[in-house]
Design goal:
This protein has 4 helices and 8 strands, in the order βαβαββαββββα. The chain is of the alpha/beta class. It folds into 2 domains: about 120 residues, 3-Layer(aba) Sandwich (Rossmann fold), CATH 3.40.50.300; about 40 residues, no CATH class. A hairpin with a 4-residue loop joins strand 3 and strand 4. Helix 1 packs across helix 4.
């Protein structure tokens, strides 16, 4: 599997880019998984539903499964920043691409997102390109933030650099 991170400030367009990139990769026959970092508490469960009742009763994990969908929810006993590698390990190994939104400090290849009017996202040793909606001075490749088909082509052309290798 190949893993590509997308890091940028709030409002820079990370979610929109990934949302537009998924069908482009799918059109190329790729299976895509996504991991999203949430900075705030969130809940995907519905109060009153069985899964919510089990979770609030104290279950560490609740897995709900139907013919169309499987959802696994688990509670951190102590609030802690999630380990991106542990999250990747939980995904279906048949994924061709894992697109990661956030996790800006992860030791994974990432594309920095920059939108005119916002400060450029800091780059680190794992930043391999910048997706921007305006010209930007950088030594890295600059991809058009508003051209997801071209970004999908670029990802496919550079796929070996995104091959996932768990680093100790």
């Amino acid at each position: 599997m190949k893993v590509a991170g997308f890091a940028g400030f709030s409002g820079s367009g990370k979610t929109t880019l990934i949302e537009r990139l998924i069908p482009e990769l799918r059109a190329r026959g790729q299976r895509v998984s996504v991991i999203k970092h949430a900075h705030h508490g969130f809940d995907v469960d519905t109060p009153g539903k069985d899964t919510h009742r089990h979770r609030t009763a104290g279950a560490h994990e609740v897995l709900a499964a139907s013919r169309q969908r499987v959802v696994l929810m688990y509670e951190n006993e102590q609030p802690a920043e999630p380990d991106i590698h542990a999250l990747i390990a939980r995904l279906d190994a048949r994924a061709d691409w894992v697109l990661i939104e956030g996790f800006k400090d992860a030791d994974l290849p990432k594309i920095a997102i920059w939108r005119a009017g916002l400060p450029p996202h800091p780059q680190d040793a794992h930043t391999v390109a910048v997706a921007a909606n305006a010209p930007l001075q950088t030594a890295l490749p600059v991809l058009d933030l508003d051209a997801p088909a071209a970004l999908a082509d670029w990802l496919q052309a550079h796929a070996p650099r995104f091959m996932y290798r768990r680093t100790p």
